[in-house]
Amino acid sequence: MGEFDVIARFFKRPARCAALGIGDDCALLQPAPGTQLAISCDMLVLGRHFFADADPCQLGHKSLAVNLSDLAACGAKPLAFTLALALPEVNEPWLEAFAQGLFALADAHGCELIGGDTTAGPLNICITVFGEVPVVNGQSQALLRSGARAGDDLYVSGTVGDARLALDALQGKLTVPADVLTLARARLEMPTPRVALGLALRGIATAAIDVSDGLMGDLGHILEGSDVGATVQVDQVLRSIACYARATRSEDHVGIDVSLEQWRALALCGGDDYELLFTAPPRQRASVAAAAQASQTPVQRIGLIEAEAGLRLVDERGQALPNHYASFDHFA
Ligand code: ADP
Ligand code: MG
């Protein structure tokens, strides 16, 4: 099976929203009047982001999910994506499953595959997504990293640290009960991009980012982009990660061989959760709650944006905690 057969058999589908889909030198996209295109690109590399035995269906899902998460963080509505694929061989069952996972998520978000590139080489998956953001009175409605202001509340969606919990458990660094691992592993392998929440936060949130490299590092990008500082109530974040233990056990942490310090590190440094971290002024609290409800996404207030530069951590009682939590950096 050659390159063009692979494309035709596994990836070519009739164009829907695109003016021109797969098959010519370029695809054509027609953004709606009064909108901007939001564009993002993410690459998944074998041995770096996933292992050779990764389930291909889950890999198809995750490859697109991490890209949709970037659109969510900008408050952009998914439109279309391209897929650049390097394959060591044409493994038909693998491609079948990969395409299935990919298209299931794409269809759930009405996001159309409009083109790509297929080549032989070490397994590598690179997706570029295109989304749409309205422009109102000349003003883009995109959620940026630069909009946080002193006095804003800081929120995070869902739970963070779970993907890292699964990774550490799979690598034998910590022990968790099977039911907890199952839940955490789903977060690692099948992340849910918070697209509906991102859309619902347009006009409400002042800044947003998706948590891909860890909460501390990603919050750092907002603080830097907005030229502000923040205080984070660490155990507000912690409480969210511990809810697995709550959901599956009668008491917090029972049966999980994880210290308080480890819980904090998982929540603050663990990456790959693809939750949204965002800010909004206190007068928007009811609107944030409504956005969370409308998008059926839990949201938790975890801190405060301040004029004073830097990132301060406090525990449940407001006591300062040392900040030695770094997040993931591919080259560090
Ligand atoms: P070109 O030589 O102009 O780069 P190709 O021969 O690489 O075009 O690709 C032919 C068509 O198939 C193009 O429309 C391209 O966008 C599409 N395509 C190639 N690989 C993929 C893929 N993995 N998924 C979706 N579309 C693809
Ligand atoms: Mg090509």
Describe this structure in words.
By secondary structure, this protein is an alpha+beta fold. The protein has 2 domains: 3-140, 60s Ribosomal Protein L30, Chain: A; 153-321, Phosphoribosyl-aminoimidazole Synthetase, Chain A, domain 2, CATH 3.90.650.10. 36% of the residues lie in helices and 25% in strands. The chain has 10 helices and 12 strands. The protein has helices at 3-11, 56-74, 92-108, 162-170, 178-189, 195-200, 215-226, 234-248, 260-269, 285-294, and strands at 35-45, 77-87, 112-120, 124-136, 139-140, 153-157, 207-211, 229-233, 275-280, 299-306, 310-314, 320-321. A 7-stranded mixed beta sheet has the order 7-9-6-10-8-11-12, sandwiched between helices. Strand 11 and strand 12 (320-321) form a beta hairpin. The longest helix has 19 residues, at 56-74. The radius of gyration is 20 Å and the shape is globular. The structure holds adenosine-5'-diphosphate and magnesium ion. Adenosine-5'-diphosphate is lined by residues 7, 11, 22-25, 83, 85, 113, 115-118.
